[in-house]
Design goal:
This protein is an alpha/beta fold. 23% of the residues lie in helices and 25% in strands. A seven-stranded mixed β-sheet has the order 3-2-1-4-5-9-6, sandwiched between helices. A seven-stranded mixed β-sheet has the order 34-33-35-36-43-42-40, with helices on both faces. Strands 22, 24, 26, 28, 29 and 32 form a six-stranded mixed β-sheet that branches. β18 and β19 form a beta hairpin. α1 crosses α4 and α6 crosses α7. The longest helix has 19 residues. It is globular, with a radius of gyration of 29 Å.
Length: 864
């Protein structure tokens, strides 16, 4: 795609997408407030497109399990080709996957993938929803999935989204019949079908009916299959506003899933399903329940304003506006649009208490109409702050600005702030192309909670996020922390347009970036590292770094049990901490203090979670500061509790120095340092053929990071030196690679073939195939107990074939399956050893699983 084409997508699609979201109150923090960089009104063609979306009342909800499951071309076709309200409901946020861009895993990866989905929807024109289901990793059985997720809670969430969005049709991506696919996939379809049957039932989940109404979609399809009565529909063609094929729009949307490797080669794995042409693209839809249809998924559904009581005249008047619209003079349509707005407001007033057909649809259309009028008069506005980060209790100056480009009379009546705040209210008559501004100063309520994604504010269960405020369930992200309504009078009518404070950050290469307001703590805390390994009965220091985000921060710091057995006993932690607390003083912003506590482990193996807590001016803070920053998504700030996992474990090691060759990103180096090793991290420059052999000298072992063969282009050239190092007596431990997208097929000094085989049950019993092998005995005697407490899964992408020089060490299996013995393969090579493992050490070591440390230590000790 050319640079010009991409800019057209970036300029037009974000605005079109935000108009029908209806899911996050004032405009989503990840969605540009207006055009990408702010001031210009929409081109006439885009306004005409928005008018067509205002005229159409149909809605379709697409349902699947994960980020990247969605059919982006279907969404683009429905939103841009048919002008429907289209939305994607992803049951999970992709927290259980791997990250090809950086180190984020678990909840942090889920936050990044949430933003990737929002970025995708801004391009393909859809809205985005989620449930509270946690992606706990690959599942082979949808019944296991439903049990871990809490079937009823996820079902409740899907019903809530249906009642909130009110789709006419639901389309699942996957079948309700189990097959050779992810258990989450099947479960997403099973739950969608159940929710379809319950959403219109007033006795189902009655707690939701305080704010929502029952809603029964007409039918539900599966977007696959070709059984009897299957419907085939062409979703090909071209977007009339952009002049681009829907397939091209879909490819750019799908390319936003960059943490999964998409978008690096014209859309990444899968690309835009169906190619990038404007020709026919037939999709199959199998009816699961509801009214039959033979030619179109919306067959027989009234998608006009006539479906709303007294709404037919609005459709007729909108047709007249479209017929007479002048792209060169959009302002000429304003009087007719204001007449339509009067009628929409009348319907909204009649339906405000109990209107079964109104709810969010008319509200969405009203917001869309206000935006159309805003664009027709050329009205732009913003609220800027000097910094996007504000501490509770601080005073903030808000600079409001507005400008109109047409000669239509517009009076700026002022701004409304949330709660106790009062915005400026003196009216200003705007003049064409003359900026107007006003300042206001507010004090942020000291009780305002710190910014943190709403689904991460409470500790999760193994399968579900916990959410304190039910009204947030389903939303992709938090509403703005300080929502603003800017009030403008046009033609005697008052438009209240949503806004929020943003910090504008200039970027000469990408254009200005706008970061919405975040509520932050005046200090942040971090353990270095977050897992600390102790020999039973031993003592050593753990360090907490306290960083000042405001000047003159003085206080004390202590450590306390989090949710451990000690806390449940009401007693102190079995780990003895000294001293009880430490003082700190930080003079300037950015100053850091490293406070060291001496911790003594209990005499027997034990694990304890400790939280760092600082007290400043009587206020308690336990937050970290984590910033996720990638070019394709907005900056994300997380402030979870600062926690340490203290692990008392019988652990012996051999050797002192280990080299680490990074792959897609994991925390193995920090874990090895906790085990007592000095770790040398190789850079690309170190891997040059003339320098790499020298860099390997003196190392006791080398560890290759996860997916290195998937993401590194320099690995193939470095392998001969690495194999020579092994032949000379060294040890190499290669962690898993995915079986697709390999940059090199040479993974080891002897051939092996990868597969998608895995053991998803982290509690699966392990058989020792070669009990006397050194890796199971030296220096730690490995037993079945060392596989207790593993998290998420046991291993992934096991080799399915290997050279006879390799010895398989372990075997295990998921319920009802044959044993897999490719999880740990070890081969002598020359005087050394090469180990290839699909065991997920990259999850177990950061989780502080004792047995994983013991087995990994034995891998590093091979040959010693």
């Amino acid at each position: 795609m050319s640079t010009m084409t991409f800019r057209r997508l970036g300029r037009i699609l974000p605005t079109l997408a935000l108009l029908t979201t209806g899911v996050a109150g004032p405009r989503s923090r990840a969605t540009p407030t207006r055009w990408v960089h702010g001031a210009d009104p929409a081109p006439g063609a885009a306004i005409l497109y928005e008018l067509r979306r205002f005229r159409v009342m149909g809605s379709v909800l697409h349902v699947a399990a994960h980020p990247d499951d969605e059919n982006t071309q279907l969404i683009a076709y429905l939103a841009h080709g048919r002008a429907y309200r289209a939305a994607y409901l992803s049951l999970t946020r992709g927290d259980g996957g791997q990250n090809l861009l950086g180190p984020e895993l678990g909840p942090e990866l889920g936050v990044a993938r949430t933003q990737e989905l929002l970025a995708a929807r801004r391009l393909d024109g859809g809205s985005q929803f989620f449930t509270r289901a946690l992606d706990f990793g690959f599942s082979k059985d949808y019944k296991e999935t439903l049990a871990i997720w809490d079937h009823q809670q996820v079902l409740s969430d899907v019903v809530r989204v249906i009642r909130r969005f009110r789709p006419d049709v639901i389309v699942t991506r996957f079948s309700t019949v189990p097959g050779n696919t992810h258990g989450h996939h099947t479960a997403s379809a099973v739950i969608a079908l159940e929710a379809f049957k319950l959403a219109g039932d007033s006795t189902a989940f009655p707690d939701q009916l305080k704010t929502l109404r029952p809603w029964q979609p007409r039918r539900i399809f599966m977007n696959a299959g070709g059984g009897p009565g299957a419907l085939r529909m062409d979703i090909g063609g071209e977007d009339s506003v952009l002049g681009l094929p829907f397939a091209t729009v879909a490819a750019e949307s799908r390319a936003m899933h960059k943490t999964q490797g998409f978008g690096q080669t014209g859309g990444g794995p899968g690309g835009a399903r169906g190619g990038a042409g404007a020709g026919a693209r037939l999709e199959t839809f199998q009816l699961l329940a509801g009214d039959s249809a033979s030619s179109d998924i919306m067959q027989g559904i009234d998608t006009t304003w006539a479906r709303i009581p007294d709404g037919a005249p609005i459709g007729t008047l909108t047709n007249d506006v479209i017929a007479n619209f002048s792209p060169q003079d959009p302002a000429a349509s304003v009087p007719a649009l204001l007449d339509i707005r009067t009628r929409v407001l009348a319907i909204a007033r009649r339906c405000s208490d109990n209107c079964e057909t109104m709810d969010p649809i008319v509200a969405d259309k009203r917001a869309l109409l206000d935006h159309i009028i805003q664009e027709c008069v050329g009205l732009s506005f913003s609220t800027q702050v000097a910094s996007a980060e504000v501490v509770p209790g601080e005073r903030v100056t808000l600079h409001h600005s507005a400008m109109v480009k047409s000669t239509v009379p517009v009076r700026w009546l002022g701004a409304r702030y949330p709660g106790m705040y009062r915005g400026p209210s003196d009216a200003v008559a705007l003049r064409a192309n003359v900026p107007a501004g006003r300042d206001a100063s507010v004090t942020i309520d000291p009780r305002t909670p710190l910014s943190q994604p709403y689904w991460l504010q409470l500790d999760a269960t193994p399968g579900m996020f916990r959410v304190a405020d039910p009204s947030l369930i389903g939303l992709p992200e938090n509403p703005p922390v300080f929502p603003i309504s800017e009030r403008f009078e046009i033609g005697g009518q008052v438009l209240e347009l949503p806004d929020q404070p943003v910090q504008v950050m200039a970027d000469s290469t990408k254009g200005d970036a706008r970061r919405p307001l975040d509520i932050v703590a005046p200090i942040s805390l971090a353990f270095e590292p977050e897992v600390s390994i102790f020999a039973p009965g031993s003592s050593h220091q753990v360090v907490v770094v306290v960083t000042a985000d405001r000047a003159a921060m003085s206080g004390t710091l202590h450590l306390e049990p989090t949710d451990s057995a000690a806390a449940r006993r009401g007693s102190a932690t079995p780990f003895v901490i000294a001293p009880a607390s430490l003082p700190f003083h930080l003079a300037a912003i950015g100053d850091r203090a490293r406070l060291a506590f001496t911790i003594t482990a209990p005499a027997s193996p034990s694990t304890e979670n400790l939280t760092a807590v600082a007290t400043v001016n009587g206020a308690r803070y336990d937050n970290q500061r984590i910033v996720i920053h990638y070019d394709h998504i907005p900056i994300q700030l997380l402030q979870p509790p600062a926690r340490l996992k203290a692990v008392s474990v019988d652990l012996a090691t051999r050797g002192h120095t280990v080299g680490y060759l990074p792959g897609a990103g994991d925390d193995t180096p920090a874990a090895m340092e906790q085990m007592g090793y000095r770790v040398t991290r190789f850079t690309p420059a170190d891997l040059l053929p003339d320098s790499f052999p020298a860099r390997l000298r003196g190392l006791d072992a080398v560890v290759i990071g996860i997916r290195a063969s998937n993401v590194r282009t320099d690995l193939a050239a470095a392998l001969p030196a690495l194999f020579a190092y092994v032949a000379a007596g060294g040890t190499v431990v290669a962690q898993y690679n995915q079986n697709t997208g390999l940059r090199t097929t040479t993974l080891a000094p002897y051939p092996l073939t990868l597969s998608a085989d895995r053991v998803t049950d982290e509690t699966a019993a392990v058989t020792f195939l070669v009990p006397d092998h050194p890796v199971l005995n030296v220096p730690n005697k490995i037993t079945a107990a060392d596989f207790i407490g593993w998290v998420q899964e046991q291993g992934i992408y096991y080799p399915s074939q290997w050279d006879p020089h390799f010895t398989p060490i372990l075997a295990s299996h998921d319920p009802g399956e044959a044993p897999l013995d490719g999880g740990l393969l070890i081969a002598p090579y020359g005087h050394g050893y090469f180990a290839y493992t699909g065991l997920v050490f990259f999850r177990q070591l950061p989780a502080g699983v004792p047995g994983a440390y013991r087995l990994f230590a034995n891998l590093l000790a091979l040959g010693k």
